[in-house]
UniProtKB/TrEMBL annotation:
Species this chain originates from: Anser brachyrhynchus (Pink-footed goose)
Biological process terms in GO annotation: mitochondrial respiratory chain complex III assembly
Cross-referenced InterPro entries: UQCC2
Keywords: Mitochondrion, Mitochondrion nucleoid, Transit peptide
Subcellular location: Mitochondrion matrix, Mitochondrion nucleoid
Gene Ontology cellular component list: mitochondrial nucleoid
Protein name, as recorded: Mitochondrial nucleoid factor 1
Signal peptide: none
Major place of residence: mitochondrion
Keyword match Protein biosynthesis: no
Originating gene: UQCC2
Keyword Membrane: no
Amino acid sequence: MAATRYRRFLKLCEEWPVEETKRQRDLGIFLRQRVAQAFREGENTQYPRLKETSFTGVTVQDCKMILATDILKQMEDMKKGTWKKLRERFSAKKSEEDLK
């Protein structure tokens, strides 16, 4: 993944012009410096994760729990409307009575 990012940043640096008239405030020069600093080993640069969360702030464990089948089923049940819930309950009771 770091190799792909590195190539994308290189492409950005190639396409972003350096403007000599904007000394010490040129975005093109700043980008080149930051890319060189961040990718000291080029495509072989490794990126350690600084935090155990993503942009959402949710940890991996929380994501696994949220996406668990049981939790998803509970969420689907919560989404059902009142009439649908009542209809399912009564149809289940009716089928139980029919079996007796």
